[in-house]
């Protein structure tokens, strides 16, 4: 069935479903680019920074972080490392506060995805109801096999097409939404792991009175 015929058969609910599908595709592309950028660079950068910091090269670690401020973990580390002689508690709070600030960026568009997943099947159901109403309105028991059976067929077609379209949009969006949710949860785990490693390194420096823990330039 051609796209034009599909829309004609699906009825009026096909237009909001088209809007949902276009919006979903646009947001999915943005999130795919976002997560590919993070997953391709961030772990390597963070491991290099921790290695530099462990070797007392604080300036080198800061330079590497500032060169990659487009990564969430870099911004989290910088928020703590750029403090002037913080206590371990202040250092930890800086890490946690910046991590909380990054959560909305990591979860961006999640509510929109959930809205599309919830509303698309309901729009399909609405199309089903409208199609059945049209079918019963066209039904004339005394005209079975006559000209009015065309209206019945069209109404049933509208009901089936709209339902199928709503389910397709919802399933497609749900697949990517769950993938992004999994990436977000894994990112949170990495933030906790790497943040804990940096905090431990800083605490050890602080306890032995090593002033190289401060960013001197």
Automatic annotation (TrEMBL):
Pfam families, per database record: MotA_ExbB
Domain MotA/TolQ/ExbB proton channel: from-to ranges: 70-191
Keywords on record: Cell membrane, Membrane, Protein transport, Transmembrane, Transmembrane helix, Transport
Family: Belongs to the exbB/tolQ family.
Entry protein name: Biopolymer transporter ExbB
Keyword Cell membrane set for record: yes
Major site of localization recorded for this protein: membrane
Cellular component annotations (GO), alphabetically ordered: plasma membrane
Keyword Iron attributed: no
Cell compartments where the protein resides: Cell membrane; Membrane
GO biological process, one term: protein import
Topology with respect to the bilayer: Multi-pass membrane protein
Transmembrane stretches, start-end: 12-34, 116-139, 159-177
């Amino acid at each position: 069935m051609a796209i034009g015929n599909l829309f004609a058969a699906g009825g009026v609910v096909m237009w909001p479903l088209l809007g949902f599908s276009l919006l979903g595709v646009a947001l999915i592309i943005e999130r795919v680019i976002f997560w590919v950028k993070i997953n391709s660079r961030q772990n390597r950068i963070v491991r290099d920074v921790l290695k530099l910091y462990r070797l007392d090269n604080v300036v080198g670690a800061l330079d590497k972080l500032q060169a990659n401020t487009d990564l969430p973990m870099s911004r989290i580390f910088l928020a703590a490392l750029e403090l002037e002689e913080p206590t371990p508690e202040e250092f930890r709070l800086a890490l946690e506060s910046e991590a909380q600030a990054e959560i909305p960026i990591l979860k961006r568009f999640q509510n929109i995805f959930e809205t599309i997943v919830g509303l698309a099947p309901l729009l399909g159901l609405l199309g089903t109801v409208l199609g059945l109403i049209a079918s019963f309105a066209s039904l004339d028991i005394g005209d079975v096999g006559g000209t009015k059976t065309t209206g019945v067929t069209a109404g049933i077609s509208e009901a089936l097409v709209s339902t199928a379209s709503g389910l397709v949009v919802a399933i497609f969006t749900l697949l990517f939404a769950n993938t992004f949710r999994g990436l977000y949860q894994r990112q949170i785990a990495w933030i906790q792991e790497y943040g804990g490693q940096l905090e431990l390194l800083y605490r050890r420096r602080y306890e032995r009175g090593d002033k190289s823990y401060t960013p001197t330039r």
